[in-house]
Amino acid sequence: MSHLLPPNENARLAALNELALLDTPNEPVFDRITRLVTVLLGVPQSTITLIDSDRQWFKSQVGINISETPRDVAFCAYTVLEASPLVVKDALQDERFATNPFVTRPDGIRFYAGIPLKNSQGLVLGSLCAMDSKPRQLSAQEQAALQDLADIVTGEIHLRERLIKEQKNSIATQKALTELHQSLEQHIEQRTRELNLVIESAYDAYLSIDAQERVLDWNRAAESIFGWSRKEALMRPLT
Predict the structure, then answer these.
(1) Which of the residues in the chain have pLDDT under 50?
(2) Which one, of 15, 33, 24, 2, lies nearest residue 124 by Cα?
(3) Domain check: are 79 and 137 in the same one?
(4) Element (H, E) at 57
(5) Is residue 15 part of a domain?
(6) 48, 86, 141, 191: which could join 60 in a potential S-S bond, CB 3.0 to 4.6 Å?
């Protein structure tokens, strides 16, 4: 089976990595879906599959005791490639899958149904899958039920995208505020240094007092005129 790549593969992988779902623990919101698939369709296996660059990884699985397989033997690679539901009634009779090692082994995959899982930009990140070791048909009602469940998974993906975007916006806003605050502080410090230089260089006496008329500042001209050094004058009553 060849390694199949859609034309938007780079954008698709970037979106998948940004979602940060790969190699994360099982979550009830996804596990409920795969359990429902097995009950509603009467199949022994179901997965929520994400297609990475060289593997398919199962975010949730029922009836499967592995967490990933190579991408080049993944049925879901075709679902991602075609970006549309894929139904294989009998894999042994389908030239795309007849020699697949997961088909040729005893009790291998015969029936497969996969619904694409798309992000908010329409990029296919993986699929919701149902599998059986026996050939079978998928009725219109069953496919509709599978699509409904896939829509729930897609909704969860879109929710996580929004949360990631909001977090990024929050971080960007905080960074901008921090940079603005630092810029204002630097500007104030610069203006303060300039003002102090002007005051110290002035020919007129400059003094600053607080509400209790205690001296807070006293320039060199004040020292010369009044005869008190700055150190002597600071915090003394003006009188």
Answers:
(1) 1-2
(2) 15
(3) yes
(4) strand 55-62
(5) yes
(6) 48
Long-range contacts of 205-208 (CB under 8 A, 24+ apart): 207/233, 207/238
pLDDT at 8: 92
Report the domain count for the chain: 2
Read off the tokens for 46: 């179901």
pLDDT of residue 202: 67
209 with 135, same domain: the answer is: no
CA distance readout (Å), 235 to 55, 210, 231, 232: 75, 9, 9, 8
User: What count of other Cβ atoms lies within 10 Å of the Cβ of residue 2?
Assistant: 7
pLDDT in tens, 191-233: 777 666 766 776 677 777 788 888 877 788 878 888 888 788 7
Neighbours of 184 (CB within 10 A): 10
Q: Are residues 145 and 31 in the same domain?
A: yes
Residues spanned by the domain of 74: 9-168
Helices then strands, each counted (H, E), the chain = 7, 8
Query: Using alpha carbons only, what angle is made at residue 58 by residues 53 and 60, rounded to the nearest 5 degrees?
Result: 155
Position 1 scores a pLDDT of 43
Burial of 161 (0-12, 13-18, 19+ CB in 10 A): middle
